[in-house]
Amino acid sequence: MTHQEISHYRLISQKLYKTTPCSPQEIVRHLGAMQAQDYAMAKWAIGSRCDSSEKAIEEAVSSAEIIRTHILRPTWHFVASDDIYWMLDVSAPQVKRFTASAAKKYGYDDKKLDQVNSQIEKMLSGNNHLTRDEIMQELNIKKTSNEDFLSAAIMMNAELDGLVCNGRMKGKQITYSLLEERVAKPKNKLTKEEALAKLALRYFKSHGPATLLDFSWWSGFPPTTCKSTINAIELQLNSIEIDNQTYWFGNDISVESDFRESVHFLPAFDEILISYKTREASILTEHQSKAFTNNGIFKPIILENGKVIGTWKRTIKKDYAKIETQFFHESESHKKAILFEELKAFENYLGTKIVIE
């Protein structure tokens, strides 16, 4: 298997070929957790894998079929509602180390964070959905640049404790609500080993072929933990050796899967790039600095046959959306013509006309 073939199989495992109809929640559940700090772009990460509109995905988030919260690495993710509790149980303890360290800089130890959680629970009780600013106002925490870091740590801690999650949008503002008022708690809990095995299976079936270090990066767990987890589930996976690296993937993807021509407009921070430790299978090393920066900022990308060939950006106008493209090689600018077919899906998703420049 070559890097080109790996990128092809990842298109299949990540459901970018849209071979079967899926709802937004089914896409999120399949992928396990989808990075979602850029909310507008994260919705298109779901939309690019199904035929749902932005409004339908927004409704799935507002109705708590899909939860947007901090989980796995210390950043926003989309998670299916029926995965939220077991995934929090297994991943929250490691992510809380970051929030605890951030809060301590402002004099908030575990005891004080628990007290703040109690206050937040009271103000959100009864399906009350408040913005972060509204919650901080109730907590008498002023809005300054320093306190903004504190408020982020407080709310992330409350998310990781399973107290809060996203609420309904207030206009364009994100709100918080009580998780247990939105998603019923399951009666049974998984052991840590069971949850890790479930997380690993979900990752390799939805992101494979991928390596142990890829899973370690995506999940946030150290390589030693990931190695023992893979050992426990290896009979449920396929694997292949390339350049002394073992790549794992689901049993339901055949290595004879037909190759097909494809073009994809994918959002910033899409799983096709961000969920792997190294990304040579999808983007040449000399182009990587054009698609993402060393400090973790990822641009929207254009994929042709599984390879990143350029970047794009969207500007929403009154009656249309403008798409500007930038190809890595100027000689490829003629490929704009092949992008129009893919843009039809984006037009349907946005519900507005697209103009490409």
Keyword list:
alpha+beta; 3-stranded antiparallel beta sheet; 357 residues; 5-stranded mixed beta sheet; 13 strands
List segments where confidence is low: pLDDT < 50 over at least 5 consecutive residues. Answer: none
Q: Which geometry do the CA atoms define?
A: globular
> How many angstroms does the end-to-end distance come to?
37 Å
The count of β-strands is: 13
Task: Describe this protein's structure.
The structure is a single chain. The chain has 357 residues and is of the alpha+beta class. Among the domains are: 92-182, Arc Repressor Mutant, subunit A (Orthogonal Bundle); 263-356, no CATH class. The protein has 15 helices and 13 strands. It has a 5-stranded mixed beta sheet with strand order 9-10-11-12-13, with helices on one face. A 3-stranded antiparallel beta sheet has the order 1-3-2. A hairpin with a 3-residue loop joins strand 11 (307-316) and strand 12 (320-327). Helix 5 (84-104) crosses helix 10 (192-207) and helix 11 (212-219) packs across helix 12 (223-233).
Describe this structure in a few short sentences:
The chain has 357 residues and is an alpha+beta fold. The chain contains 15 helices and 13 strands.
Indicate the topology.
Elements: H1 3-13, H2 24-31, E1 34-35, H3 39-47, H4 54-62, E2 66-71, E3 75-80, H5 84-104, H6 110-124, E4 130-131, H7 132-138, H8 145-160, E5 164-166, E6 175-178, H9 179-182, H10 192-207, H11 212-219, H12 223-233, E7 237-242, E8 245-250, E9 263-266, H13 271-274, H14 288-291, E10 301-304, E11 307-316, E12 320-327, H15 336-350, E13 353-356
Parallel strand pairs: 12-13
Antiparallel strand pairs: 1-3, 2-3, 4-6, 5-6, 7-8, 9-10, 10-11, 11-12
Helix pairs in contact: 5-8, 5-10, 10-12, 11-12
